[in-house]
Amino acid sequence: MSFARRIESRLERxxxxxxxTVFGGKTERLDIENKILRAADLAMFDHPAGPSVPNxxxxxxxxxxxxxxxxxxxxxxxxxxxxxxxxxxxWRLNGPVSVTIVSDPAVPTRSMRCESETVxxxxxxxxxxxxATGNVAYPVTHIRSLIGRDRDCDIQIMQADxxxxxxxxxxxxxxxxxYDLGSSNGTRVNDIGITTTPVLVRPDDHLAIGGRRFTLKWxxx
Length: 221
Fold this sequence. Notes:
single chain, alpha+beta, hypothetical protein PF0899 fold, Tumour Suppressor Smad4, 6-stranded antiparallel β-sheet, 5-stranded mixed β-sheet, SMAD_FHA_dom_sf, FHA domain-containing protein, FhaA_N
């Protein structure tokens, strides 16, 4: 199921029990979900860590239509839906999700316009990579995190046995996964070498990136 369809499913649940909105005498529910889905689909792009989607959305409505928004269609609710869907699907967000609802008289009544963009910014970690002594060596802030020696890596490990782009660690469906990017010295889970096929990382599993060893700990469990 696509990212757009996942968001649509969550938005359908969000709107359950919400009465229809009357626009210009015609009863219909404000088509918020379709606008966001279209914007997300059109702006999806490839990142070295994998598929990425926009994190900033602006919804433009005519001033007359703003009071007709269902109570469930708050910006915070829409932000939560997009964030949770990206986390479940393993899509990368380059910054925190932001949804702004804008009053714009240039937008026709009974209509709506959505713009999306990617704006890098700090995010709360969903997990931490712990070092050998149990200390936090690296916070994992991106849903899909690129690990390696290069400056563009989310988790930069400055060791000669770590490749420039070494591995990708990501979250999907409340689980952690990792795969190797064809590195020179390999990636191991519990001392077993892995390939470009994602491998599940369970609690207390030991990860080896080149010569560095870590344990993954979820930040909110």
